[in-house]
Amino acid sequence: PEAVRGRVIGNIMSGLTIGILITRPIASLGAEAFGWRGVYGMATAATAAIAFTLYWALPQRHPANGVSYGKIIASLWYLLMSERVLRQRAALQALCMGTFGLFWTAIALRLAAEPFDLSSKGIAAFTLAGAAGAIISPIAGRAGDRGLTRPATLVAHLSILTGLTLAGVAGAGWFGFDPVTHPTLALAGLIIAAVLLDLGVFADQTLGRRAVNMLCPEARGRLNGLYTGLFFIGSAVGSGLVGVAWSHSGWTGVCVAGITFGAVAFFLALINSNQRF
C-alpha cells in the first residue's frame, strides 16, 4: 500500500545493507587467507549458489500485457526521459554513491598506512561501521511516508558532508589535528565518519526508491532497474577516481572529491521545487 511503501522499502534496504556489511569483512579475511584472486573465486561461488537457489525457489510469473522483452528494454529510454522524478533521484543517488565509492575504496589504503598500520583483519573489523546503513533505512522510509522526503534528503546529504569533513580531519590532519600524535582518536574519527557517510547514502537511496516506486505501477520493475543502474554508475565513477585522487593528493584528495560530490547533491536537492520529489 502507498501509505506504508517507504517503510516496506526501508525494511528491504536493511537486508541489502546487512549483505554489504557481511561481505566487506568476508572479503578482507578472504584476501588475507587466499589472496585477492581467492576473493573473486568466493564471489563467483556465492553468486552461482544464489542463482541456482533463486531458479528453484522463485515462483513463475507471466505478465498479462503480452509485451515482448525487446519492447520492454526499448521502453527504458522513454521512461527515463518522461519521468522527471526518476532522473532527479537517480542523479542524487549517483552523486551519493560516488562519495560511497570514493571512501570505501580508499579507506583500506589509509588504514594500512601510518599511523594506523591495520592488517586485513583490522580493516575487516573497521568495515563493520557500515551497520549504520541497516539502521537508517527503515527510519528514512517512514520519513518518506510522512511527507518528509525533501527535508530528510537534505539531512542525508548534510550527514555525508559532515562525515567526509570528519574523515579529512581524522585521516589527513585538517584544521590542525595530528593523527600521528593521536592515532586512537583519529581511528575513532574515521569510524564515526564512516557511520555518518553510510547513514546519508542509504537514507538518500531509501527515499529515492520510495519516490521512484510511487510513479508508474505498471513499469515499477523497469523504474527500479533504471534507478539502480544509474546510481551504480556513480559508484563506479567514485571508485575509479580513487587512483587519481590518491596518487595526486592522498587521503586529502579522496575527501575533497567526496565532498564535491556531496555538495553538488545537496545543492541540487536544495533548489528542487518538485512536490513529488
TrEMBL record:
Question: What are the transmembrane regions?
Answer: 6-27, 39-58, 92-111, 123-141, 153-177, 183-203, 224-245, 251-271
Record SUPFAM superfamilies: MFS general substrate transporter
One Pfam family name is MFS_1
Q: In the record, which residues are listed under signal peptide?
A: none
| Database matches in InterPro entries | MFS, MFS_dom, MFS_trans_sf
Q: Which UniProt keywords apply?
A: Membrane, Transmembrane, Transmembrane helix
- Asked if the Swiss-Prot or TrEMBL record annotates the protein with the keyword Transmembrane helix, the reply is yes
What are the GO MF terms of this UniProt record?
transmembrane transporter activity
The segment(s) forming the Major facilitator superfamily (MFS) profile domain are 1-275
What is the protein named?
Answer: MFS transporter
What organism is recorded for this protein? Candidatus Afipia apatlaquensis
